[in-house]
Automatic annotation (TrEMBL):
Subunit structure: Interacts with TamB to form the translocation and assembly module (TAM).
Signal peptide: 1-26
Protein name listed in UniProt: Translocation and assembly module subunit TamA
Pfam family for this entry, one: Omp85
Main subcellular location of this protein, as a coarse class: membrane
Organism: Modicisalibacter ilicicola DSM 19980
Membrane-crossing segments per the record: none
Organism superkingdom: Bacteria
Family to which the UniProt record says this protein belongs: Belongs to the TamA family.
Amino acid sequence: MAKPRIVKLFSAFVLTSLAPASVALDADVSGVEDEVADNVVNYLAGLDAAEYGRQRLEAEIDRRIRDALKAFGYYEPQIDIRLQENGNVEQADIDIQSGPRVKITELAVEIRSDAENDDAFREMLDNMDLKEGQPLRHDRYDGLRSRLSTLALERGYFDSRFTNRRIEVRPWQESARIYLTLDSGERHVFGNISYEGSQIEESRLRNMLSFETGEPYLAGKLAEYNQRLGETGWFRSIAVRPRIQWAAGSVAQAHRNWWEAVDRQSTATDPNGAPDAGSALLAADAISAAARAGSERPPRVPVDIDLIPADRHQFEVGIGYATDVGPRTQFSWEQPWLNEDGDSLNHDLYLSGPEQEFSGEYLMPLEDPLRDRYELLYGLKNRDIEDTQSLEASIELARRWRFDNGWIQRLYFRTTYEDFTQADQKDQILLYYPGISWARTRTRNPRFPTWGDRQRITLEVSDQLWGSDATFVRTTFDTQWIRMLGDDTRFIGRAGIGAMSTDDFSNIPPSLRFFTGGDNSVRGYSYQSLAPENEEGELIGGQQLLTASIEGQRRITGDWWGAAFVDTGNAFDDWWPDDLATGAGLGVRWVSPVGPIRLDVAHPFDSDDPWRLHFAIGPEF
């Protein structure tokens, strides 16, 4: 027997001097449960007993309950309503015997015209949740109709219409017959593409197009192109609008409040600077009817692209704190476009106790601005960490490629001048060395990634044959992974490997030697404090590096997480290291509006320090 369900239905009070007060109705509903009972509750929720007399109220309750039950296929229920009153009706005891349930005995869903051979429609019909022999549920029928209409709009069937849509219910036979036919008409194709308001040469914008004139219309292509334009950083506002003429009575005409045009008033970005595709808006006014030659076949959809340039000068100031470097400040000056080619210039000034750096980059996009470009990087960096004092100036020219699989390849040539003191070594070194790198970052929810991974591989070569002060081959590999188990458990793993081959290590500047330890490597040890030492116990850096870490996190409540971790690693001269420094500890994470705030207490296993505190702000990637 179904358990009784008690539902209190409160109507709103109308507080005016002329209107009488509403009377709240308490209803005890029994005999049905789960989603059927929930639907009955929803149908009764708006009922105000003060608006009805006793007989009319009883009839209205009965009508609403029957409508709620029909939605689940119950057409012959028995309903017992007992009203209790004290001046006004205040209580209703309702017992429902739902009776037999209607089942689907015949299901005929058809797609006609061009969409008949469209794989997307075939897949939808193969996976629809309406089946013969199932109990009738009107929400599933309505859902199928809605999905077919939406798919037709997404895929350019703007003249589509339902030529047959009916349900024949025979309660005495406990049967329902469903007939649904969508005539899609012709599929539209993309027409002419026009630009308005762009300060960038049009050919560069066309090179990023995700569709071509004459290609079958697909709404996702418009959103994709909008995102590509946003990734360039050239524009403050982007609107990609198809101009569609719809036929009277079509699905498109019936859904005029829903359009697959993307209207972005301001280009949103995630914390990493990447565009946020979720910020795109679907706007009704994005589409206007346009005259189209009646004889043109297939029918074409012109696309208008309205652009507003981004501000030429953008400034940003950031402050933070980390145990490794203490308080830190960063000033950024960005010029997202300098000319019609889309060249950009960015400068950063980073200040902390042990490190100060000024850097700049001049980016020159090529034929496909999102994939290929030249990069000119330059900078000046001063470091005073542990036993390292270094002043470094560098300039780098690079060619960058971005591949379809997400990997980014950079081929570069770098010149570095470094005036340094490392322990008891003092020197001034000028290096010329080419390098190549491959990197890929994938992430979901950048502010606090729930899934992601990052890899980076580099290879650099220097030789005195071309005037460099040192000969070496240097390579590094770093990887990091984030995975979730359910909604409340998060795992992070990372590993790093570095190796260098050289016959004169004393000529290698500190910026190319290996050190480890600190917030993002081996916690429990201070920043870059792990490396080979000289006879006086001063750090001189290593030729090889190995680090690894595993961390498990568990949600405590809301945006608060607890963490436990183990880190290990060291820098050394001969592979394999004699000893790996290992630290373990516990931490807490708070997902703040500006990103995760991390606080860790770590214990080093082979150090005199009993524990060390680590604090940092910002996501792992």
